[in-house]
Amino acid sequence: MFEICTTGAKKINGYFYLFKTRDPAPGWIWEDSVKEFNDEVKKLIVCNDDGMYGGMNELGLGMTGTYIKVKEGQAAYFDDEYMRKVLNEKTVKEVVEFIKNFHPLMGGNLIISDGEKCFALEVGPDRIEVIEVKDSIVMTNHFQKLQYQSLKYNDPVFHEWTHARFNRATKLLKRSNSRKDLEN
Q1: CA dist., res. 91 & res. 113, Å (int)
Q2: Which one of 11, 37, 90, 108 is CB 3.0 to 4.6 Å from 43, fit for a cystine?
């Protein structure tokens, strides 16, 4: 089964907006819903039977990501309520520290924003690359800075698919200048 997500962030009128899409794949559950969690910090999280794929807390801190399995046993950020734990934090910097200290490391590309600040993280089994986002970023199921490769990357279909999604989203994001553009 291929990992299948495209995520991004774009700064519009001084605030960052996060987005995530998922491409259909046989056997995966697509009935997403937004659930409210009344934890210590209130959260809205995109959930389905597979896990928690993104969310935002009442402080305006949001996160989304893509999963890239580069080592057997590597954790997926959407499993086991990790999203709820991440969204207990109050600032982007606290989330970055939480993820850096999380064991086992979550695999993949994560985008975190509090609306005004935004960071992208490439997370491998023993290293994290933190990128401060100034204007926009797109991430799919391959790394741009880290040298790790998905266990599925040797499949030419996966390689073409992840790069095609990256290029398409980058092109669309460049001409997005409003929330409506992002929704479209």
Answers
A1: 8
A2: 37
pLDDT mean for each 10 residues of the chain (184 residues): 76 92 63 81 82 89 89 80 88 91 83 93 90 95 88 79 91 93 88
Q: How far apart are CA 164 and CA 152, in angstroms?
A: 16
Residue type present at position 138: V
Does the predicted TM-score (pTM) go above 0.70? yes
Cα dihedral value 178, 180, 183, 184, nearest 10 = -110
> E strands along the chain, which residues?
5-12, 15-22, 33-38, 42-48, 51-57, 62-66, 108-113, 118-123, 128-132, 136-139
81: alpha, beta or left, given left = phi > 0 and alpha = psi -120 to 50? left
